[in-house]
Write a structure and sequence with these properties.
The protein has 17 helices and 22 strands. It is an alpha+beta fold and about 550 residues long. The strands form 4 sheets. It has an 8-stranded antiparallel beta sheet, with helices on both faces. The longest helix has 22 residues.
């Protein structure tokens, strides 16, 4: 068994930090390729953390350099002649991640459609397919699951690959195919008493996408719908205004917002703003991933034939008319703050992310060190923390995020609160887990949709994901298929995550994944229209997925 050996602190090491060298790490040649080296290496990092090591030096034989690179160690200069020097910064699981589930594996409940359905808004997905696809993110509701509860069937090969990449270990339980054509996942579990007891009766933390009345019954929690009142965009705007009225946030501005009691009132406001040369944002009271949010310039209003014509093409329901925040001259425009409130009412900060948003619709996010410019990070974190305190005081418990846009004067404008998990939250979970397994410093990007171009059966999809994981590993990056059931939709796609040590590595990994997905679609295009994955024999059943060591 390898053991880090303490060394004298090298120049540039953090004061008080222990520097160590990894001793011999060998695997019997006949069993190379079975994952034993990975287990040994990760055990060495855990031991290093326990010893207080903050910088671990590895002088590798050139033939083993590929292994250490794939494990996340970073090549550096200064090693002995003939050897390849690597460094790694061992860290424990992030403090917030331990607080999120108490350090225990959790049961993840993918009730995305159920959460959306409680807000009867015309912009939300009525067919449940998209929401059920996004339930795949249940694999990332905490750094390590004990069980996944999912509405649609999922391929076992997906769980095995993700579990291997994130070192879940064997025995992750999967309950899938429970609510394919209805939003009520928690109700479907409650209708199966033995399954409900297995899911909720073992003393493990339960983590849902978001809180609902049926989930409250499943988890044994009192249902207090007012906890979710700030999911409303107008209520969130009032919350922001109240925080700013108390002062202390000079880097934050709040766009004006006008509720429109009728469509005619909304058209009148939009027309007035267009005549004055002002861009406008129209919002539904509720929405998901930017649904129900439309940015309208005066040119777009004129091209559509006027304000009334614009509104005829929008979902029905109440509208909010909001001042458009002008784009910054440089730097990111769309940012988010993630945090949560514990069951005891304590707010925790998770971090800040940069989102990719196109015409009001969310497309993905990037998290990690240095992603958010320092000039924006301070005001964003301070205001996000203030929102967290208000949410805690209002009785809310669970994950939340606050979305912002940056303006032309270098200020941030908060736009909405989400009282649930999100795409960025999944990226934060993965970053925390990879830092624990591979050393600190990972950047993680979640990409909402990577088009496939053809529907792939289960086996070719598994092979594509395995090939992308291997290609990214060879480039020093990590690939994770995040939303896999979209590959079986009529217009097939994948949600993915990639991780790397720097921005250039992240961009290269995303480009590699997109190119691989396009190539796979082209190769299989002649057969893809008749290919499907039904999960035959697995609907509503439990399986235990063995993950290789």
């Amino acid at each position: 068994m390898p053991c880090p050996r303490p060394a004298r602190r090298a120049a540039g090491a953090a004061p008080g930090g222990v520097v160590a060298r990894l001793g011999l790490l060998f695997v019997e040649p006949s069993v190379i390729g079975r994952g034993i080296g990975r287990l040994l290496y990760r055990d060495a990092l855990r031991r290093a953390v326990a010893l207080g090591v903050r910088r671990l030096l590895i002088d590798s034989d050139p033939y083993a350099a590929g292994f250490y690179g794939a494990m996340g160690a970073v090549a550096s200069a200064g090693g002995p002649a003939g050897l390849v020097r690597f460094e790694v910064a061992p860290v424990p699981l992030a403090r917030w991640a331990r607080a999120w589930t108490g350090g225990a594996p959790a049961v993840h409940v993918g009730n995305v459609a159920e959460f959306n359905a409680q807000f009867a808004d015309a912009s939300l997905d009525r067919a449940y397919r998209t929401a059920h696809d996004y339930a795949c993110l249940a694999a990332f509701y905490s750094p390590r699951p004990a069980a996944l509860v999912l509405p649609r069937p999922v391929p076992p090969g997906w769980i095995r690959l993700v579990g291997r990449q994130l070192d879940w270990g064997p025995g992750v339980e999967v309950y899938d195919g429970l609510a394919e054509h209805a939003p009520g996942l928690s109700e479907a579990v409650l209708a199966r008493p033995a399954l409900a007891a297995r899911v909720a009766g073992r003393g493990l933390p339960l983590v849902p996408w978001g809180r609902t009345r049926p989930y409250g019954r499943l988890a044994g929690l009192e249902w207090r719908p007012r906890e979710l009142r700030y999911e409303s965009k107008s209520a969130a705007h009032a919350l922001f205004a109240g925080i700013l009225a108390r002062g202390g946030h000079p880097g934050i501005t709040l766009p004006a917002q006008w509720p429109a009691a009728t469509r005619r009132a909304a058209a009148r406001l939009l027309a007035e703003r267009a005549r004055a040369g002002r861009a406008t944002v129209l919002k539904s009271e509720y929405g998901v991933g930017g649904s129900g949010t439309t940015v309208l310039t005066p040119e777009r209003v004129r091209a559509a034939g006027g304000a009334r014509a614009v509104l005829r093409g929008l979902p029905r329901g109440p509208l909010l008319v909001e001042e458009y925040v002008p784009d910054p001259a440089h730097g990111p425009r769309d940012l988010t703050y993630d945090g949560f409130v514990t069951g005891g009412g304590r707010p925790y900060e998770v971090g800040a992310a940069v989102m990719e948003v196109a015409d009001g619709a969310y497309r993905g996010a990037t998290v990690g060190p240095g992603v958010v410019p320092a000039a924006l990070a301070g005001p964003l974190r301070a205001f996000g923390a203030a929102v967290g305190r208000e949410l805690a005081g209002s009785g809310y418990r669970g994950w939340f995020d606050v979305d912002f846009v940056a303006d032309g004067a270098g200020r941030l404008a908060p736009t909405e609160v989400n009282l649930r998990l999100t795409g960025p939250s999944a990226a934060f979970m993965v970053a925390a887990r990879l830092d624990e397994l591979r050393g600190a410093g990972h950047l993680v990007r979640i990409v909402d949709r990577v088009e496939l171009g053809a529907r792939l059966p289960e086996a070719p999809l598994d092979q594509l994901c395995a090939d992308l994981a291997a290609a990214c590993a060879a480039a020093g990056a990590v690939f994770l298929p995040a939303i896999v059931t979209g590959a079986f939709d009529p217009a097939p796609w994948l949600g993915v995550m990639v991780a790397a040590r720097d921005a250039a590595g992240l961009e290269a990994a995303e480009a590699l994944v997109r190119a691989g997905a396009r190539a796979a679609g082209a190769d299989f295009g002649g057969f893809g229209d008749c290919a499907d994955f039904t999960g035959a024999g697995r609907r509503g059943r439990a399986s235990v997925v063995e993950v290789e060591g």
